[in-house]
Amino acid sequence: MDSHAFDVYKIIMEADKLRLDTLKRMIDILTPLQAVELLVVSKKLNLCLHEWGKRRDFQMGITQLLNTQIPLTRDPPSESKP
């Protein structure tokens, strides 16, 4: 199992390196203004997908299911002094 996990780790690292290399090459091709616009739009897309995923999970009840399995950690009630 450890070798499988290591293989998956290597694949993830290679994919991340490919993603960064591609982004660097794209930025080299673009003008500085285009590069900034690309990075801004990419970040907006990432945030929108994250919010969409959270809403979808909530609508499907996945978030509620996960919350029931994870105990809530709250501050202990404060003791009232007489």
TrEMBL record:
<dbReference type="InterPro" id="IPR051886">
    <property type="entry name" value="Seed_Dev/Stress_Resp_Reg"/>
</dbReference>
<dbReference type="GO" id="GO:0043565">
    <property type="term" value="F:sequence-specific DNA binding"/>
</dbReference>
<dbReference type="InterPro" id="IPR025422">
    <property type="entry name" value="TGA_domain"/>
</dbReference>
<dbReference type="GO" id="GO:0006351">
    <property type="term" value="P:DNA-templated transcription"/>
</dbReference>
<protein>
    <submittedName>
        <fullName>Transcription factor TGA like domain-containing protein</fullName>
    </submittedName>
</protein>
<feature type="domain" description="DOG1">
    <location>
        <begin position="1"/>
        <end position="59"/>
    </location>
</feature>
